[in-house]
Amino acid sequence: MNIFDILGKIFSESGFAGIFEDPRYLVMIIVAFVLLYLGIHKKYEPLLMVPIAFGVLLANLPRTGITDGLIHYLSLGVEYGIYPSLVFLGTGAMTDFGPLIANPSSLLMGAGAQFGIFTAFLMALLLGFEPKVAAAIGVIGGADGPTAILTASKLAMDYLPAIAIAAYSYMALIPMIQPPLMRLVTTETERKTVMKQARNVSKKERIIFPIAVTTFVVLLIPDTAPLVGMLMMGNLLKETGLTDRLSDTAQNALTNMVIIFLGLSVGAKAVAPTFLTFRTIEIIVLGLIAFCFSTIGGLLIGKIMYKVTGGKVNPLIGSAGVSAVPMAARVSQIEGQKANPSNYLLMHAMGPNVAGVIGSAVAAGFMLKIFGAF
Amino acid sequence: MPFTDALIIAVSGVSVVFLMLCILWLAMILIDKLVSFIESFERVSETNQKVVESEPAKQFAFGAMRDETWDRPIQKVIGIFTPKPDETPAAKKPAEPKPAPAATAATPVQPDGYAGELLLFDVDEKTAACLMAIVCDQTKIPLNELVFKSIRALD
In whole angstroms, what is the distance from residue A347 CA to residue A160 CA? Predict the structure, then answer.
């Protein structure tokens, strides 16, 4: 045995040799670098994009065995739908449902913005996806990462990475995707509409709201329990004012830990043999279509409400019905101010925005109900 | 799956989401009404209880707040909604100074409808009266229809 034998052995057992054996891993490593660039440099949802991208990188470095050990056990949280529900707990603890309670008609815009889910579902079927996979793809249109992940983990585990990456990418791209659609669907006069300040919401209402929503929604569609239940529990922890420590944990420590595990697990599912397929590209395109239709659905309901209320509702807040909180609401605010600098739509847009979270959970629950048993 | 079945599922899905959120909308309206009713009921019973308990606290009737030391313009504004001193029995009594950090004032129901409790935090009565007058003037709502719960000085 000489030095060359030793070096040759090290090389033949290294990841580099693995890349030579299957160059697709190299492509996935480049994909991971691109995702890291988007997350870190472009700031596209960095809290999730960075762990996902790093998961992609780790899983595609050949011969590590990490996907059979650490990642395998972390992935159980995704497979059993634990992480998305816990993220919802944190989301609930961070969300102020006041604008929605003050203006419950926002719920209609939240419902309209789920239109893309069902459009994308139909289109995915036309492209030859299995019905349950089509349902999981459609949920990307809800613009709600945890909901998309939960649905995909139950209905289309093989496509989970593509669905998760598509969902979070489009959520990050909201400031680019939505404004052209907003200008296309609404008129200048509609965009200039100034909305009246919403009423104050009492503490009693804020406390009753999560309890009532959980009871109504979960009784009607029990499959929404993990998402709606956790979302509302988180909100109740926040609103009681007596469970500050729990609320604080849900908002910060717990959510941060779960996001690390979730991102890493989802990213690590994107291994070259299953991810580098034409289906992935189809899913990403369908996700974009779903997203656009959801935005248009919310805007159209906004336009109807503008007409019905005699011009008291600015239809721009309808686009916030896609549930990317609070980015979609911010986009409504920015577009509203472009049309009329004295327009402050942020708090009004938060109503449809949080309604969208409930709406997408209901739509996902419906899909799970219909296709979960297949 | 036949496309017609898929279409039915999609239409059903949209309908379920709308129906669900409409039910929630109705539920929220009901909650709003219920909470408003409970809160107004609580407010009324609280006020009645204070009226019974706080006979000596009549000094804070709005009429009593009018004092010769007040500036004339303020008197003019306050005069729009406060009873004249000679019309209010409480006005004959001197206004007692309230504690500065948190003053509580409760009054019985007056014939002209001025009543209730007002909490003052780091605000003197003169300033409070001015603020109430401004709100009354700006909103064009008569003072006896406005309910002030508290006035707090902001940093």
Answer: 33
